[in-house]
Amino acid sequence: MKYKGTLIVVKDCNRALKFYSDMFGFQLLQDNDGNMELTNNLYLQESRYWEQFTKKSVIPNSNQSELYFEEPDIEHFVERLETLYPEIEYVNYIMTHSWGQKVVRFYDLDGNLIEVGTPV
Predict the structure, then answer these.
(1) 59 partner at 20 to 30 Å CA-CA among 11, 79, 112, 114?
(2) CA gyration radius for the chain?
(3) What is the pTM of this model?
(4) How far is CA 100 from CA 1, 67, 97, 103, 119, in A?
(5) Domains of the chain, residue spans
């Protein structure tokens, strides 16, 4: 068995692709009409397909898992996020953990939780 990556459910793959490209530099590898493969093993699937396949409703902002990224200049990252996506909803703004790492947590445009932290 081989681990292939992480799939997140989104309302609109093209909108999500733009967000992940703008903020994290992901690029499209394959587009299968509502299912996209991006660089770094991230997969997008539109909610209409996911709900059809699983017979389950999507629960945005569920906080059960998160995508984790590291960025040395976290302040600049947050400035860029606020400029390009002022509607972003934060879970916590930039904070510093007891071990010195700065992190910010927010939801993407579809309610998927993201954490960006400085390298440890």
Answers:
(1) 79
(2) 15
(3) 0.94
(4) 37, 20, 5, 10, 10
(5) 1-57, 59-120
